Amino acid sequence: MQKMKVLFAMFLPLLVSVSSQAVVQKPNTGNFLRCLRDQSNPKNPITKAIFTPQNSTFTSSYVSYTKNKRYSNPNDTNLIAIVEAKHESHVQTTVVCAKSNAIQIRIRSGGHDYEGQGATDVLHKWQLVSSKLPRELFLRAMPQITKGANKTIAVNFIAQFLGSSKKLMGIINKNLPELGLKGEDCYEMSWLNTTTFWADYPVGTSTSVLLKRPSTPPGAFFKSKSDYVKKPIPKEGMEKMWKTMLKFNNHVFMQWNPYGGVMDKIAANATAFPHRKGNLFKIQYFALWIDANATKANLALMKELYGVAETYVSSNPREAFLNYRDIDVGSNPSGVTNVAEACIKAHVINI
Hints:
- By secondary structure, the protein is an alpha+beta fold.
- The chain has helices spanning 29-39, 58-63, 88-100, 119-129, 165-175, 191-198, 235-245, 295-309, 339-342; strands at 4-14, 18-25, 50-51, 79-84, 105-109, 137-145, 153-162, 186-190, 221-229, 251-258, 281-289, 318-319, 346-347.
- It has a 7-stranded antiparallel β-sheet with strand order 8-1-7-6-10-11-9. A 4-stranded antiparallel β-sheet has the order 3-4-2-5.
- Residues 1-22 form the signal peptide.
């Protein structure tokens, strides 16, 4: 009898462009508002930037930047005020006063804030829990550029679980309730059939399709790089990555693959594959384009993205996954085999 695998995929839009509008939550409204006025710079008073439910324009101010009907009624939230910052000092004052009054702040964007709290928070929490989930569960996160006129970043969560969908929902809703996982998000199938799912075939596709070798030349160009992460990437670090990704004019994404589980029980020097204990997750950066004339620009942007990530990934040495075949790692620009020249700060050992 084959054991069943449960797969699920979820898609969360992501706030990436932080504008000057802050939304705050209860408790003490009076102290908070007094703090705003007292801390405000007289040269740039904050008074006209504050909107509370007592203001006649409060609802219109809230609705004007709300794109999702689920969040269109301010009475359904814990919202106590909106600060439409007109000056950078307004942002600073709001942060100080919110912190001193134990009030939470939510940043609103100029049009990309599709999900109220934003998926950045969810992805940050994913870093903290994904490597500690039961070893029967693999939960991948995929930040990527969305299609359409309003280009932004979205995060796609995809998982594979050895067990029932009911048990999976219990695990996810306990550890990442922000995903709101439901039964209809899951597919139950045999382990063998999951191979077509991961190969991007529609659910239910016969596994015989895997026997078909490509008969035509590749139709696209691509570049892939990789990293290993040992400490959670801060939100500001993620936002720097998103801004760089948005510079691409074609398909670009990252795959964040969690480690942990059995991997975390094996020392780095126990096998020829060193990426064991101590890694939270692996990143694959991937860009794909059709126009050959765009190759130079895409390679430059990939190099820039890789550079932005450097601060937040493994170092001394900076590790990479050999099977992704990154020609930049260990290359000999001179064309002559030279070990010293090839020893860049990367660590690639095959499994």
